[in-house]
Amino acid sequence: MNWFWELLTQPSAMQTLLILAIIAAAGLALGKIKVWGISLGITFVFFTGILAGHLGLRADRAMLAFAQNAGLVIFVYSLGMQVGPGFFSSFKKGGVKLNILGMAVVLTGFAMVVLISMIWGKPVTEMAGLFSGAVTNTPMLGAAQQAALQIHPGDSETVNTMSLACAVGYPIGVIGMIAVIIILRKAGGNKGGQSKPSAEPAKPFITEYQVSNPAIFGKTIRETTSLVSARFVISRVWRNGKVSIPTSDTVIMEHDHLLVISSQEDVGKIQAIFGEKENKDWNREGIDWNAIDRILISRRVLVTKPHLNGVKLGSLRLRNLYGINITRVNRAGIDLLASPNLRLQMGDRLTIVGETSAVDNVCRILGNEEKRLNEPNLIALFIGLALGVILGSIPFRFPGMSMPVKLGIAGGPIIVGILMGAFGPRFHLTTYTTQSANLMLREFGLVTYLAGLGLDAGKDFFETVLCTEGLVWIGLAFAMAVLPTLLVGFIAQKFLKTDYARNVGMLCGSMANPMALTYASSTVDNDEPAVSYATAYPMAMFARVIIVQLVILLLA
Question: Pick from 355, 372, 389: which residue ends a domain?
Answer without folding.
Answer: 372
